[in-house]
Structures are given as C-alpha cells and as structure tokens.
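Collaborator request, handled under Task 6.
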Amino acid sequence: MNLRTKIVALAVAPLLTALLLVAFAVRHQERDLAERERALTERTYMAQRRSELRAYVDMAVSVVRPLYDTGQDDEAVRAEALRRLQALDYGDDGYFFVYDLDGRSLMHSRQPELVGRQLWDLRDSQGRPTIQQLIAQARQGGGFVEYEWRKPSNQQMAPKLGYVTSLPRWNWMLGTGLYLDDIDAAMKGLDQQMNHNLTTTMLWIAGIAALGIGVVSATGLLLNLSEHRVAESRLRKLARQVVQSQEDERAHLARELHDGTSQTLVSAKLLIESAVDALERGREPVPSALPKALQRLNESLAEVRGISHRLRPALLDTLGLPAALERLAAEFGEEGAVRATVSILGVPSELSPDVKTALFRVAQEALTNVHKHSQAAKVDIALAFDHGRVRLDIRDDGRGFDEEAVQDDPKSGIGLRNMRERVAAIGGRMDVASGPGGTAIVADVPALGGEAA
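Structure tokens returned to the collaborator:
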C-alpha cells in the first residue's frame, strides 16, 4: 500500500466512523422525539375528545332539564324527553343513547332495534361488560368509559370513548360517545411519517458519506494531510448541521400543533345562557355566581378566538388577503397608540393559499416589529395587484434600525430572516430599507406563487 492510498484510507476511516456515530445519534434522537410527539399527539386528541363529549352530554341534559325539573315522572313527560334526545344528532356517527339503570335500552337513534331490550349482560370482544360499566360510571356521578361498539357509518366494530351521566329520579343513564378508530389511523399515519423521515435522514447521511468518500478519494492524490484535515472538519460540521436541521424540523412540527377549545367554550356559554334564561323565565332569582361565570366564559372565549385568529385568521380563507389585512390593521390599532391603514391598489386577483399565507405572515411580523421596536406613530400598508403579481408595501415613521448589524447578529433579526424565507419560498423577493425617518418593507411575489430560484 503506497503513501497516497494510506492517506486516503486514513481520511476515509475517521469520516465513516464519524458519520456512523452521527447516524446512530440521529436515529436515537429521532426515535425518542417521535415517541414523545406520538404520546403528546395522542394525549391532545384524547383531551379534545373528552372536552367534546362533556359538551355534548351537557347540551343533551340541558334539552331535557326543563322537563326533568318539573318534578313530573309520568310516561308522557318521559316520552317527550326521549323524543327530544332522539332528535339530537351530530356528524355521521354521533348520537345519544338512554338506558334505565337496570340495563334496558330506552332510546338509541341509530340502532332502534335495541330499544326495549335488556342488555345488562352485553360484552364486547375483550370480554368487558359494556352496559354494566356505563351504568356503574353513571351511578358515580358521570364519567368516561372506553368500550367497543358498532359504528353506524360502516357497521364495523370500533373502539369508542363514551361519557355518561344519570337522571336519578327517572332511573336513567344518558350518554354519548365518539369513535376512536380515526385516532388510531392518525397515530399509524404519524408513525409512518416518522419512519419516512428517519429513512430520509439515514439516506441523506449515507449520501453524505458516499459523497465524502468520493471527494476524499478523488482529491487524495492532490491534497496533503493538512488539506484533508480541513475537509474532514467541514464534513463534521455538515453532520452537525444535519442533526440540528432535524431538531429544527421537530420543533417546527411541535409549534404547529394546535388544540382548539373554542367549540367547548361556546357550548358551555350556551348552556349557561340557557340556564340564566330558564331561571329568569321561571321568575326565580338568578344565582350571583352564574352571571359571573358567564362573563368569565365570554372573556375566555374572546381570548381563545383572538389566539386562533392570530394563528390562522378565518378571513384569509373566506374573504381573502385584503380583508384579512384590514382586520389585522384594525386590531393592531386597537391594541396600541400606533395607527395602521390599509390601501388596496389595482384589481384584486386570485391568490394561491401559499401567497396569501406568506404575505399575511409578513404583514403580521412587520406590525409586531413596529409595535416592539419602531416607536412609530403610524404605519401604512399597501397591497398592489399588477399583471399576475402582487406587491405588499409596509412603511412606518419610526426610528428605524441598522439592517446590516441586525442581519449579522445571530441573536436578533430572526423575524426579518423568517419574512425573507417565506417570500423566497414562493418565488418572490423582499427588500428592506430603514433609517431615522422610518422603515419600508416591500415584498413582490407572483400571484399564484412559484418555486424560489
């Protein structure tokens, strides 16, 4: 073995060792992160389902509560209550059921053949006494039960999470449930995506290894040992960047997880309003805690809607980017002393979802920077449509900043870099000009988006 071959071998061996260690570390970190994300996603799904079920059952109870509170227990009153419950429906597989506490089915809107049958001894495929568990939970004041039941949409047995409560004077158990097979499917899809990402990462590392070996082998005849050390250092730096890119991707996915609770709050708000209205119609004094609870619920609902709007405003998808920008400017003006105006130039044309989202996020980030840093008195937003392109122009009269210094500092300028990346990703260009007289941000993109050059 000649000296050149030895130099190449000495260069390749550490490179392969380093990349194998990097591959092992990435694989371990990816698996660990995937398991944590899976558990977090499953907990999020289940928490959302539990909240939905509570809201549905509370709504059903509120429907029959006026009849129940009359104190009448005759068959006509009970029949009317069952009729009202049977009329309630949600989704393809959402329904309510009523059993007496002895296990006899009184109402089942999707399986009427069960009505009147004694189902106390019914068990699912795992041997669990379904009706007995539900009734036991209802007797304890209500709660959740997992069991199997036939899904109306496909007539297949599927796992289900039920929530039940009791109406003791009528000897009733009232409940509903949500099927969990979609969560199982989502978890399988998430596992497949994680495996795909892991395979892609390993292929990238393998490709990098192959490329490194090829480069070292091809240049080993010309490079001396010191040049090889420089190349090896660069490859190790690239490997660290691969690991960091995976962490960044996982962090991005974690930030995108969103569990909305607005529907639950709306349902609770309607129930409280219904209770207040029922008490007032009955000329009974309204408990002082009830209006306070309604007020706090309204405040919570407004806060949740505000957060949801900032994450993804509904106007952006329904009425388009101009309306969303006008709403954003109005909210910005209401929050502080800076006045924001929006002007639309040209004839608005159809924008792709990517373009609408990117330009809205640019405007959102720009207004955030104005609020935090500019000390401006006003900000003007102009959206111009012209021959298949759209231009977003945001200008303020603040104190400005040193753009070059901000870009060179890794701890600052993150917002500007994110804005540039968003615009570049859809084939556009963003220019920033700032000085003592204010700051101007101009983003010019194709109306239907495109790939960055």
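The cover message to the collaborator said: "The chain has four domains: 3-44+184-256, 70-179, 262-309, 314-446. Strands lie at 96-100, 105-108, 143-151, 156-167, 172-179, 339-345, 378-386, 389-396, 429-435, 438-446. Please let us know whether this matches your experimental observations."
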